[in-house]
Protein: Sarcosine oxidase subunit delta
Organism: Albidovulum salinarum
Amino acid sequence: MRITCPLCGERDRREFYYYGDAVYADRPAADAAPEAWDDYLHLRDNPAGETRDLWYHEMGCAAWIEVTRNTVTHEILATRLVAGREGKKAAAKGRGKKA
Ligand SMILES: [Zn+2]
């Protein structure tokens, strides 16, 4: 299987780490009802057909990518960045700063 990273182009799937359903990127608010957290943490659909999954370009640019694919035909329909590298750079700068 080949995955097109929006930053690096088409790459072998072995360069990527599969994380799971793209619903992980839609985290509930901290004060959301327990049912919303239960749904977020434990309940997943298992459709035959189109899914949205999170992949991490571990052996490439280290970007998180949402991959829309068909689980029946294995066709990849779309890929997009979940968070840009600019956001990661900003977060990394903030971590090492002394107050
Ligand atoms: Zn990449």
User: Anything to note?
Assistant: Residues 85-96 form the longest helix (12 residues). The first strand starts at residue 2 and ends at 5.
